[in-house]
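User: Structure please.
Assistant: Input sequence and predicted structure:
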Amino acid sequence: MKNSNGFSVIEAFVSLGILVLVATSFLPLASFVSYEKEALSHKRQIVLLLHDELQSVLTKNDFPTTRKVFLDSLVTTFEFTNTESRLIKGCATWTNIRNRHEEICIYGKQK
């Protein structure tokens, strides 16, 4: 190869193409991970608040109860009902940042 001046230019274009391909694949993935991280953070906060509200309902014995709470621009509905086996069921429903309807329920035992 006496004249290899064009070889490094082609090599640079190929490496630039690979870099652009990797960057365009990574950015949507990073955005998805960021949204899911925020959705899980909201879910943790809602579960902690649901637990605190359930403890309050257990001590006051005032149920069935429905409450709406605004948490980081999310409208969360807490609903507490009495079951047949002396358990109080506390459920939280909300629409998360990815517009998915979520519901989580926990139970508490009356004394």
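The chain has a mean pLDDT of 87.
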